[in-house]
Write a structure and sequence with these properties.
By secondary structure, the chain is mainly α. 71% of the residues lie in helices and 0% in strands. The protein is built from 3 helices and no strands. The N and C termini lie far apart (49 Å).
């Protein structure tokens, strides 16, 4: 894995919390920050997916189209 080094600043209280956590868990600050940023972006992506789904559902409901339950589909196709 290619490493990219960068300098970032943290609030002193947050840095103390990071250091304490890393000491307790035996991990590096770099590892923790990388994991935290990855988790943040995954959560952000999940939120965007949710918001897209809500918008699509609202559009569908406004259109007046009929939806079907899985039971109705099974009955229709003898499943």
């Amino acid at each position: 894995m290619l490493k990219c080094t960068s300098s970032i600043s943290f609030d002193p209280e947050l840095m103390a919390t990071i250091n304490e956590y890393c000491t307790e868990k035996g991990c590096s600050r770099s590892w923790l920050v990388n994991k935290a940023v990855i988790a943040y972006f995954e959560k952000l992506e999940d939120k965007e997916d949710y918001e897209t789904a809500v918008a699509v559902l609202e559009e569908f409901e406004k259109s007046g189209s009929k939806g079907y339950t899985s039971e109705e589909i099974r009955k229709e196709f003898d499943l």
